[in-house]
Amino acid sequence: MTDSESSEIQPERRPIASRSSGWAQALSRKLAQSSVTPNQISVWSVICAAIGAGLMLGYSHPAAWIGAALCVQLRLVCNLLDGMVAIEGGKKSPVGAIYNEFPDRVADSLFLVAAGYAAAWPALGWLAALLAALTAYVRVFGGSLGLPQSFGGIMAKQHRMAVLTAALVAQSVLWFFSPSLLVLQIAVVVIAVGSAWTCMTRTRDIAARLKTS
């Protein structure tokens, strides 16, 4: 989830350890002092995802996979900085709540669908993208009931992107020894199954909180 917030609607923020790191603090301050807006940073996360997806779809080569892995990480950096610029930098937007969610769903789908095609299992890529979106739906649904939004689970966004990044790097190494796409295939399976499990655990958590409220 990106972290830009609206001045009227205050979505909860995903806990991110790197938010307190020196490089993130310094870069967010520079961006906050510039003309760049948090919402523009959110849009850039989608652009990074589109480039990464294009690399996975267009080329079955280590250079493309490494480039896609870098795009995954750049997307995460954008997700980190948009909220920091919005909140700590004092540049909240009335439509920040929209940019808080929609670009993330698009970026997830671009990466995961492309990963499915790159792994030669397109249907599973689409399934992984659907389940990833469902994890966010369950989280936001819990918030709509007045409960704290749950960012937990074994396959939250940061876990999905970590699995995908590791798989792309590992696949680029495997390419020198075998034409197999096994690593990417395993990654898409892990993301799909883990996302389904995350949906179930978040739903159980919502049910438990409702019973005790």
TrEMBL record:
GO biological process: phospholipid biosynthetic process
Top-rank taxon: Bacteria
TM region positions: 41-59, 110-138, 183-201
Swiss-Prot/TrEMBL keywords: Membrane, Transmembrane, Transmembrane helix
Cell membrane is among the record's keywords: no
UniProt-annotated stretches for the region Disordered: 1-21
Protein name: CDP-alcohol phosphatidyltransferase family protein
Organism: Oryzicola mucosus
Lineage of producing organism: Bacteria, Pseudomonadati, Pseudomonadota, Alphaproteobacteria, Hyphomicrobiales
